[in-house]
């Protein structure tokens, strides 16, 4: 469901791997009986048009059912814990011109990438909290 890389791709305005995340959330948030039915039917063959056209925009994420929001929230927290530093530490380093200039070009680029990733994850936390 998640794809080759085992991760979902989030953007500033929406989930870029929306189909994978949508199906994953549905499966992980269903009851045991619903899951048995899902397996027997080999997935959802008769999805409604509304579900097929679901775009996981930020607005749609904020309207998810509570169990799905909690699952996303907990997943984001786990992902943030996997980083060695928090968002504030990255922001402090970006704002400290002297320390920033001591970093190699590659370290500066990595800092910008990590900072952007963490900002998107924090935005998602706010959307589903």
Task: Describe, in short, the structure shown.
It is built from 8 helices and no strands.
Could you characterize what this model shows?
- The chain has 129 residues and is mainly α.
- It has one domain: Rubisco LSMT, substrate-binding domain (set domain protein methyltransferase, domain 2, Alpha-Beta Complex), CATH 3.90.1420.10.
- 65% of the residues lie in helices and 0% in strands.
- α5 (66-81) runs antiparallel to α8 and α6 packs across α8.
- It is elongated, with a radius of gyration of 18 Å.
- It starts with 17 loop residues before the first helix and ends with a helix.
- One of its GO terms (molecular function) is methyltransferase activity.
- This is N-lysine methyltransferase SETD6.
- Its main location: nucleus.
- It comes from Eolophus roseicapilla (Galah cockatoo).
């Amino acid at each position: 469901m998640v794809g080759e890389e085992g991760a979902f791709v989030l953007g500033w305005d929406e989930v870029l791997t929306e189909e994978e995340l949508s199906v994953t959330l549905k499966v992980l948030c269903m009851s045991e009986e619903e899951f048995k039915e899902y397996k027997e039917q080999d997935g959802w063959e008769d999805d409604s048009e509304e579900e097929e056209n679901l775009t996981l925009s930020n607005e749609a994420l904020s309207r998810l059912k509570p169990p799905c929001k909690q699952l996303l929230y907990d997943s984001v927290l786990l992902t943030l814990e996997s980083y060695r530093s928090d968002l504030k530490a990255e922001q402090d380093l970006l704002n400290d011109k002297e320390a920033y200039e001591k970093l190699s070009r590659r370290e500066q680029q990595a800092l910008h990438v990590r900072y952007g990733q963490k900002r998107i994850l924090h935005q998602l936390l706010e959307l589903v909290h």
